[in-house]
């Protein structure tokens, strides 16, 4: 239950990303600066936290064991996650970006066969591929149905072009984020905590952000003061607080594929928080009756998802060792 609560809190802080990215885009800000500045601002904040806990040197040693895997999975988990997210904000409203992003609930479960688990057999210990958690997939589709209903209720105001430019990059991100996160959990095997892993992935993905920001600096110049300020807010609220909360929650559930799917499902709360944020900060945002029904389905789906994962079954006992 604690992991689920942390996941919901993370979804609240993650919602800041969708609302502020849309505000920056509406003001003419570059999606490249929005993506790059978040991680450039995250770096010193996380350095202070990790150094204060005297864990920076152990983190560097851990990264030095598999530097190329750190670089690759950080590029997947951070780069192919956030760059498309910011790109989509330039073409779609925040609610549509947040809604499409919730496909990560299904994507996370579909990725399960890419990982192995250690089980005890009559012949000893064996590595077998994990299976898609079908018991929880049903609840995930309840959540997704609510999201589809919310999007359908407002999609008439969005052009096909903007919907595609908002949808396709986010679909890439929905697979990249859980894949990168899980592969990093598998790589670290509990040797680093959420703060250290977030800092390590930020450092490992730094070449991408430096390349993008250098390109943008040469072609369009420096970002505006407002975009810089808003990006710093995103860095603190979403990049540090939300990411650490979510990584902590997934670390707590990493030994059980059903519980991990439930934690990832809590991110559907981003849609609720994003819609509320848009109503408060962006004029013209409205929610129809169908949209409200969709919101109810999301909340009900989250509750049912959590309830199903809390029911222990014999097959759950196999979810041990090595993470997912």
Automatic annotation (TrEMBL):
The chain crosses the membrane at residues 31-50, 70-90, 96-115, 136-152, 158-177, 198-217, 229-249, 289-308. Keywords: Membrane, Transmembrane, Transmembrane helix. It comes from the Bacteria. It holds the Pfam family EmrE. The keyword Oxidoreductase does not apply. Coiled coil: none annotated. This is Multidrug resistance efflux transporter family protein. It comes from Alicyclobacillus fastidiosus.
